[in-house]
Amino acid sequence: MGFFGMRPTLQKHTFPDGTYIAETHAVRLYRRMLPYDVISIVHRKLSNRKSSCLLLTTIQTNMLMKFIIKDYRSLFFILILSSLLVAGCKEGDGDADYGFAYIYMPQATVSGGLNNHYPVPSGAGVSTYNFKEENGQIHIYLGVLRSGLISGASGFTVNVSASSILTEEAIASGEIASAMALPTALYTLPDKATVEPGQSSTSFFLSVDNSILTDDAYAGKNLVLAVEISNPTQYELSDQNTSVVVVIDVEALKEREEEPGD
Of 249, 226, 247, whose CA–CA distance to 105 is shortest? Predict the structure, then answer.
């Protein structure tokens, strides 16, 4: 039962590897606010209750401290989620292999299955923003994740590229207001991403020139770029969520940039 005796409404959220959870609206909101690192961890633990007792030791200490100090709502979410998951732990559970190994981009799942759009900025505060500004560049967090728990997992590399075709399709769909393709001259993207042996994920940046914040040509625009992964050297790509449409809300980003540091 929920607060005041009310039964919370549950919604089904399905991950790319076919695992799913039932979550309340509040949990759904907190999942969307969490940064890539924690989304990846939560997915792995929810899709594999056998390793759920590793949750707190997997989350980096410094990240958890940021939540404690700067964002009590995220801390509340993590504590609630941890209590639910740890309740299902059994001795030796964390050592068992589980699930299927499929590769995808976790940022493509932030809409909860509605589409593969990845809004920038997002996050509940500086410590959870999905971008950072450094040396005249806006670095947007992206990543690659392999589902399943596999002991002695091999490392792998995927190709990373921008897709003009997917970008134009996203703009033409009409789902993004004031949409404009992000000019090629204004961003850089690595051509590969590598997950080390024994690991299940890695992150990389889409780096955008911060002149988009001062150039009147981009005022009021949503700058759009589709990024996709391909050709894994190990394992298989998921049937979905191997591309993400990054949507940069220029005006919202200006507002975040003007906020005082936490």
Answer: 226
